[in-house]
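SEVERITY: medium
COMPONENT: batch folding queue
REPORTER: lab tech (J.R.)

DESCRIPTION
The queue accepted two submissions in a row. Attaching both inputs and their returned structure tokens so the on-call engineer can compare them side by side.

ATTACHMENT 1
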Amino acid sequence: MQIVYITNRVHMARETLVYVENLMPFVTEAVFVCPGSQVEDFHFKSRISVRVIDEVKVLGKDLRRFREAGDHQFKNCLLRFSLAHVKDIDDEFIMSDDDNRPLVEIPLSFFKSSGRYSGYYYYDLKKWSARETDYDRGQHETCGILEDKGYEIFSYSSHMPQIINKGFLAEAARVFQDSLDQGAPLDEWSAYFNFGQNVYPERFHPPMPFKTLCWPPFPSDWDLHVRPDEFCFENYYPILYESNSIFSDLSTGFDETSHVEIANEKIRRRMAFQNDFEAGKISLWGKMFFLCRDMAGRFPNVRRRFNTMIPPSRQAMVLHFFLDGSSRKTKTGNRQP
């Protein structure tokens, strides 16, 4: 089966492809849709076939609208919905982001079994509260659009690969065309899976809890609505590997001899981090900091200014500083960098 990426990050995609080669054995071809100026850069040497497609050929008549759009969520949806009309894309394929990396070996049955597709969700759109980014706005608008059509309102943008039926994707694109024509920042993952669950329930398993490590990247970002029962993919964030961060002493690349140990250590640290935060193992100053941040979140303009002064990666450093728990210790009890 193909795995299809929309990307313009060469190094990120190359590193992720090595994980896929080793841990998703059913993948026979990786397709990279990228800007025309980068086509040559994505012709990676790999044990699996690699195909590179200029995004201009994917977008067709929507190219101008794509280039003029300022909303990141809208552009993502426009580009991914356009995959339904690309002849080089198979009738069934895995759709992924270039930073979604398998942690364990993934069989095809993870995505499709007994002739039915599995979709992995992480939130109820009605309960999404943040409003400061294009993604946030997309979650709210997608919720309203789905409700108007009488569909379920789960968020499937779980930052992990998901299986797509090309014919169903084409139908979903037609169903939501009016919303895209109005420039709505539709969440393409949620639009597709809620459409599929409603129109073709016999072809889909019931919604399944997501299985993504580091989504959200930090436990202070939002309260978990769905708790993964296992972690099969990592949502790779470079800032988590920076100096003084939770994974700073771990390699980002795939190493066949040490991968299992490193993957287990990542899960251990991130879960300890989550548990310590939820248990309130944070100093009074830390609680005050995040209380002020959350209050600012009620006012998008204030929150944007807050994030400009203290970017999310620096907020993570603040969380590490104020949080004193097992997530900041290695198995031997030494302090993490």
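ATTACHMENT 2
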Amino acid sequence: MDDFTTVFFKGIDRGFNIPSVAASFDIFGSHFTIKWYGVIIAFGFLLAVLWGGRCAYKWKMSIDKMLDVLIYGTLSGVIGARLYYCIFEWSYYGQHPADIFKIWEGGLAIYGGLIGGLIGAYFTCKFNKLNFLNLLDLTAMSFLIGQGIGRWGNFTNQEAFGTNTGLPWGMWSRKVAEYISENQAVFAEKGFSVKAGTIAEKAYVHPTFLYESLWCILSFVIIFIIYKKFRTFSGQLFLTYCTLYGTGRAVIEGFRTDSLYIGNTNLRISQVISIAIALTALVLLIVLTAKYKKDPKPIEGVDFFREDESAKEKSRKNKEKKIKAQKENLFGDYMAAKAEQNREAELQKEEPSEQEKEAAEEPEAETAEPEDADTDQN
């Protein structure tokens, strides 16, 4: 291994030799170099895929269809990440179009990768008839695994760092100093300044790659807890991811020195997008959570309600059965009473009244009186 960079931290006396090249070799006269940047990103991607496959199995999602999503989503994600970066750096790539395809030299934007990957995944899900919202929940945790690990690739390249800081974890290296020295004019144009420093007088900078990595890991833990204890509807985990990651990225992006900007303004593209995503996701999360509480339903493809929700659902169904039974009993009692009244009315019609009985007996009495008269005369 070669191409070491010595990295110093303010709170540590010694420096650390960080290699950027993992392997370098020749095959059939051609020289190949494998950088740690690519190795670390690939490792994060592998763990993300394994986690996604595990969730897909538990959620009863077809593994074959998920492989299609993985393939087409990955391809569209890489294309989206590269296009996003090149579009906002068009002042360079417009004059060097051949460099657009040199992705091994860096220049893959996370938001572009997410947008491209989701577009590819959406159409693949639609074609394969997969639940896209469940897929989003699955990818939320997978994204955080990949992002949390992948950010360390920036460390080996000594990129994605921030402005000067006096904090104990402030970082400095020759690569950092060279980048800062070369971009002083850009910083001045955007309204901030950064000192490059020297080996004797180091000007430490924020390791923003580390901030984002730690934020992604923390967000994963939060979403995992929601997944195990509080997940109630499809899309909930993804909206939580958008809220958490968008909030963290908006803050962290403000420290960075290598941000992409909107035109000639001082507006950082990733910061604007992060704020918009976080606010939109938070509103949707609140609305859909309130909607679920009014009408709870099982999650499609998941073979369980959470235990507490299952108990609530059983209790609700039992109450509904009791109310239905009570209504049926009341209706039955009403119909029985009605039938009894009808029977009594029929009996009353068939049985003569006291007046009718008296009226029927009176003629007999009148007939008997003449007989008595005849007897007296005799």
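NOTES FROM REPORTER
The chain has twelve helices and five strands.
No errors were logged for either attachment.
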